[in-house]
Amino acid sequence: MRLPLLLSSLVLLSAASPAAAQNPTVAWQIAAAVLPLPDSMRAGAEVLGYKTAGGPLVQLRAGTNEMICLTDNPDIEGYAAHCYHKSLEAFMRRGRELRAAGITKRSEVDSARLAEINAGTITMPARAAALYSLYADSLNFDPMAGRPKNSSKLLSLYVPYATQESTGISMLPLTDQPWLMYPGKPWAHLMIQ
């Protein structure tokens, strides 16, 4: 299982609707979308997903705890679910918009979003904000039974302007320790596998 090491690959969900003839049920999508979160946060998360095959990304469940979870587009290979604090919504939404506009290369989506952050058109959180992700080899799992086989979790903790010096955290990707990406930037974040 390859885990993304770039900011862009964390949440580049397509705003395009799934083409699959059998769209997963709303209950399945909600259960799968909240899997990256700690158990105590799952019931209160807002969930976005697809109510119909060929339909748009919509709210499947309202939330009460400031977290937003996205189910993955069911027609792609593998499965990913992402849950993030609402303060990251502008950043996340812009990634979906760029994908819907046909910008599909991660590096291009990254470049566009990072330029917009630098220009001040995308606002990043003033304080720390978390992004929880789960990656699985296949959509063929039962989210009601818990974490799917052959899956992995990744936590990204956005800490604006964090540096190696201010955190004491390595900038080298590590499998058993956190590492820092984009140090000194408004989108600086710690990655924890």
Strand order of the largest sheet: 2-1-3-4-5-6-8-7
Rg, Cα atoms, Å:
16 Å
Shape, per Cα inertia axes: globular
Q: What do the pLDDT scores average to?
A: 82
Structural class: alpha+beta
Major β-sheet annotation: 8 strands, mixed
* Alpha plus pi helix count: 5
Low-confidence stretches: 1-21
Question: How many E strands?
Answer: 8
> Into which percentage range does the β-strand content fall?
15-25%
Number of domains: 1
- The helicity comes to 10-25%
Oligomer kind:
single chain
- How far from one another are the termini? 13 Å
What is the string of helix and strand elements? Answer: HHEEEEHHEEHEE
Task: Briefly say what this structure is.
The protein has helices at 26-33, 39-42, 89-100, 106-119, 164-167; strands at residues 46-50, 57-61, 67-70, 79-85, 129-136, 151-158, 179-181, 189-192.
Features:
disordered N terminus; 22% helix; 5 helices; 193 residues; eight-stranded mixed beta sheet; alpha+beta
Describe this structure in words.
The chain has five helices and eight strands, in the order ααββββααββαββ. It is an alpha+beta fold. Strand 1 and strand 2 (57-61) form a beta hairpin. The radius of gyration is 16 Å and the shape is globular. 36% of the residues are buried. Helices cover 22% and strands 23% of the residues. It has one domain (7-149). Mean pLDDT is 82; it is low at 1-21. The protein has an eight-stranded mixed beta sheet, covered by helices on one side.
Task: Furnish the topology, listing elements before pairings.
Layout: H1 26-33, H2 39-42, E1 46-50, E2 57-61, E3 67-70, E4 79-85, H3 89-100, H4 106-119, E5 129-136, E6 151-158, H5 164-167, E7 179-181, E8 189-192
Parallel strand pairs: 1-3
Antiparallel strand pairs: 1-2, 3-4, 4-5, 5-6, 6-8, 7-8
